[in-house]
Amino acid sequence: xxxxxxxxxxxxxxxxxxxxxxxxxxxxxxxxxxxxxxxxxxxxxxxxxxxxxxxxxxxxxxxxxxxxxxxxxxxxxxxxxxxxxxxxxxxxxxxxxxxxxxxxxxxxxxxxxxxxxxxxxxxxxxxxxxxxxxxxxxxxxxxxxxxxxxxxxxxxxxxxxxxxxxxxxxxxxxxxxxxxxxxxxxxxxxxxxxxxxxxxxxxxxxxxxxx
Length: 211
Prior knowledge:
Elements: E1 3-8, H1 21-30, E2 36-40, H2 48-51, E3 61-64, E4 67-70, H3 72-82, H4 91-121, H5 128-150, H6 162-171, H7 184-195, H8 197-210
Parallel strand pairs: 1-2
Antiparallel strand pairs: 1-3, 3-4
């Protein structure tokens, strides 16, 4: 059964790989599954046809046969559990990888998103310059904790998995802020993720739409 995902007709990031469809593209490339992309305008996101799949009117979505999914984490997890290549065969290692998928989305990403919103939506507020260092420091705490776990390891838990795919995708959001450069261990970790052929193909596909 063919796979169809949705993506922005014109991504707000201009094709820099920060839109969440890149994560799904990357996962599908890692497991070697072909897919089609249905491009949506911002207006189409709020139309009944799309809201029937994604009740919050966002991207990406995933459709295969009679199955329709939304939420990037759920989509990547579904791909990882149905195709070989993104989760370890060992049950304990598999469980640890799933834990790190949740950690990337629930523990590491929220302060990073808060930083992005602070820079984009709050920069003209009179209190923004006082709040920004506090937000940055909350991100730094998470990054220090992540460095402590990663140490000199190449990936989060021995071999590359969906956990690394998700964590690298989350950390990429920090690049415009310069905070990632403060942590060479994490900058190198992200660079290893970006160097994977599957990521390169996913990034190129997303960039081609916006180029």
